[in-house]
Amino acid sequence: MLSNLQPACFFVILVLCTHLNVVIEAEKCLKEEFHEVSVQSDFCKLEIAELECLLSSDEITVAYESNVFEAVTTWVKYDAENRKKYFLQLFKHVRLQLVSLDYISDKVRTETLVRESPECRDLVEDAFHVYVNPQRFKLQTVRKGEMKSDAKVGFLLCFGGCYLCMYNISEQIWTTWTLPSNFNLTFTTAVSLGTCTYFCGGMDNNQPTNRVLISNGSIFKPIAPMKIARINASAASVCGNILVFGGELSTLHTFSTGHKDASFHKITDDFEIYEPDKKQWKVGGNLLSGPRTEAATVVVKERVYLLGGYNSIQEQVYPSIPRRIKRACKLVDVYEHSTNSWTSARQMNHMRASFGAAALDNRIYCVGGYQDSNTQVATSEFFEVTAGQWTNFTWETPWSGPSSACKCGGKVYALGSADQSLYSLNSDEEDWDIHSIEQNLPNCQKVIPISWRSI
Ligand SMILES: *[C@@H]1O[C@H](CO)[C@@H](O)[C@H](O)[C@H]1NC(C)=O
Ligand SMILES: *[C@@H]1O[C@H](CO)[C@@H](O)[C@H](O)[C@H]1NC(C)=O
Ligand SMILES: *[C@@H]1O[C@H](CO)[C@@H](O)[C@H](O)[C@H]1NC(C)=O
Ligand SMILES: *[C@@H]1O[C@H](CO)[C@@H](O)[C@H](O)[C@H]1NC(C)=O
Ligand SMILES: *[C@@H]1O[C@H](CO)[C@@H](O)[C@H](O)[C@H]1NC(C)=O
């Protein structure tokens, strides 16, 4: 890790470590969260050159770029009279493209040090424009630990029920463990942001739950619950926020025959947003095309694609017991978080729910799933984002039905939950490579990339 570092920065980190009196070894210090280091009082004793060198580095470990902004203001305010003149010089190193728009509006734009400098105000204005017109700006690189890009992430997590299984991709090692006994991840959706993973909703004691658990690999703890209990919702992380779309709620279902059943649920048509800075959920609004559950989400260029899912329920009385059949759709709706607006994209070729979707190189791959709650799908297709075209795979998946997929380290991985296996896409060979021959993945329904640093 240290070999990637410029010699000058290596020196600065050594100096910083000595300042902080924490450790003698620079490597240990680097592994510390930059944020943790930056809130210690000795941090303010750094020289301007030392600080600037750190701020310009991709190697400092931060979960949120907003931590870098806080470090800069703290350092300047420690001796405002003498340090104010350096603010612009340091502020230029804050990668505003990686900071959420809400944070920029609430914290950056209103900061006196920013308001007093026309150049700083211009940088803030640019940051807003990036969200509207990203192609006109050079993209800022993501620092270690930030989850904007997952190029450095080499771990996958497969989970379901009370079971989690982690896959170290480079060494092809599986590690399994059991959740703390009071937690259960049945029909839970999960997404990683920075070095944490958020597990949202699901079924608990046969009831839908609004519980949200956060984990960094060593602890699991509940955080603020969602506003609504959701089963099989779809989650995405974008601009430093967690978005949770649709899902099913608990309600007493009355069939047209008069038969009532409490185990039937209602598909929701709304979404909510978690802002880690504020530690709370807020109402997002309605979905563009009505109710949706077991849909898939992928993020491409800060836009969330909400794909497929069940959007209607029909009753069947067969042979005499009423039961309900969910129907999947082909819809693709695109949510732009910065403007809180929706647009539609071209529909998929096949209707799919509980399927896997992952974005790689400007393509969105969709695999498997159900077309109605009785019929599995064994085909796959991909969407060319720029051309707006869907293309069917010419070969079948080696598994059928419910799937989950994600991108990690430049590859698309898919979990076939019916045959409990993990595959990676090998488009050259028009095939899927299997990764779980010696590993059982009992009850696993989802696969996501994680960045838990202690592993
Ligand atoms: C996992 O892989 C990384 C390289 O990506 C390696 O450094 C690490 O030691 C491995 N960890 C385990 C637990 O196998
Ligand atoms: C987890 O919850 C599901 C649904 O409520 C239940 O069927 C399952 O038995 C639970 N698993 C454990 C290990 O408690
Ligand atoms: C792609 O698949 C869908 C559904 O499986 C089918 O209706 C459509 O004809 C296929 N398109 C092509 C070009 O083969
Ligand atoms: C949640 O999704 C799984 C498939 O991933 C499905 O088997 C299950 O029935 C769904 N749960 C509910 C309550 O609809
Ligand atoms: C996870 O969080 C706990 C509590 O905040 C902390 O003690 C622990 O060091 C963290 N682990 C990692 C790997 O960051």
From TrEMBL:
Membrane-traversing stretches: none
Pfam families in UniProt: BACK, Kelch_1
Keywords: Kelch repeat, Signal
Segments forming domain BACK: 9-109
Taxonomic placement: Eukaryota, Metazoa, Chordata, Tunicata, Ascidiacea
The protein, known as: BACK domain-containing protein
Gene3D superfamilies: 1.25.40.420, Kelch-type beta propeller (2.120.10.80)
Signal sequence segment: 1-26
